Amino acid sequence: NAQNNSVEISQETGSATINDNVYGGSGSSENSESIVRGNSVNIASGALSQNVYGGYRRYAGIVDSNIVTLTGGSVGGDWCGGYKGTDSHETVGHANSNTVTITGASATKKAQVTGNVYGGKSETGTVNNNKVGVIDSTGALIEAATNFTAANIYGGKGTAGAEGNEVHLGTGAEVKKDVYGGYATNSNAKDNTVQVVGSASINGKLTGGYVFRSNSSTELAADGNKVIIKNVSSVPSTYGGYVWGGGIVRNNEVSITTS
After folding, report:
1. SS3 for 155?
2. Which end of the chain has the least Cβ crowding within 10 Å, N or C?
3. Strand 141-143 vs strand 134-135: parallel, antiparallel, or unpaired?
4. Confidence at residue 14, expressed as pLDDT on a 0 to 100 scale
5. How far apart are CA 27 and CA 213, in angstroms?
6. End-to-end alpha-carbon separation of the chain, Å?
């Protein structure tokens, strides 16, 4: 198990350059009961050339309740709250209830992520209740991620269901491609939410819940997902729910309001 560990790169440490992945907590044993939980990475400055993971697990197990916070500096790879990777046995593992917080200093001094942002990502399991935004002490999403750039953003991306994931983007958020509340490969996407407010800029699509169906014989669904857009000057292509490859799209919602 890897629990309650932390990594911090602060402004006091200077502009550090790190040429490898950064892990809050990582587990590599083949024990299917292994847990990677409650780890954190906090970065306020520096240049990181690879990926950053709050919690990481290669084999079967649980990756949950990990947090990554970026307030300055740059990340050359992906920025991920919790990640369950792949192994030769393709063992099942889940990435649930992880959080990504990004709050850059200002619109002219943004935190930079070259790759993608994931609240939680699993190559072989569920991604449920992950968040991209600012949470309170209870884990509730209370504020938007602001003043940063990234490629794509996923509240959760997984292969055995994406449910209850949330993305909240606000002032100064710049996404070069797409935003997904939940993204499910050959499984269902349910009750995921994307909220975009203010001067956020999205160059691709907004999708509450996305299902990519490539080889599943089971009928799949994007169900009960939401996209909420408030006071955004330019609204991109937007889908409450979307199924690629055929399936059910139901009970999804898109809300657009201006002041």
Report:
1. strand
2. C
3. antiparallel
4. 55
5. 30
6. 49
Tell me whether strands 193-197 and 226-230 are parallel, antiparallel or unpaired.
parallel
Edge-to-edge strands, sheet with 248-250: 127-128, 162-163, 189-190, 221-223, 248-250
Beta-bridge partners for 154: 118, 180
pTM of the model: 0.94
Pull the structure tokens for residue 38. 């409650």
Reading the block at residue 254, the tokens are: 């898109």
Q: Which residues of the chain have pLDDT under 50?
A: none
Cα separation, 228 vs 240, in Å, equals 9
Phi-psi region of 140 (alpha: psi -120 to 50; beta: other; left: phi over 0): beta
Q: pLDDT at position 199, please?
A: 85
d(CA 65, CA 220): 28
Tell me what pLDDT residue 207 has: 98
φ/ψ of 9, rounded to 5, equals -120, 105
The whole-number pLDDT of residue 218 equals: 82
Residue 105: in which H helix or E strand, if any? none
Tokens 């369950």 belong to residue: 84
- The DSSP secondary structure of 160-187, one letter per residue, reads S-EES-EEEE-TTEEESS-EEEEEEESS
Q: What is the distance of C-alpha 154 from the center of its chain? A: 4
Residue 209: predicted pLDDT: 98
pLDDT of the residue at 28: 74
Provide the 3-class DSSP secondary structure of residue 30.
Answer: coil
Return the structure tokens found at 255: 């809300």
β-pairing, 52-57 vs 79-84, is parallel
- Angle ∠(52,53,58) on CA atoms, nearest 5: 125
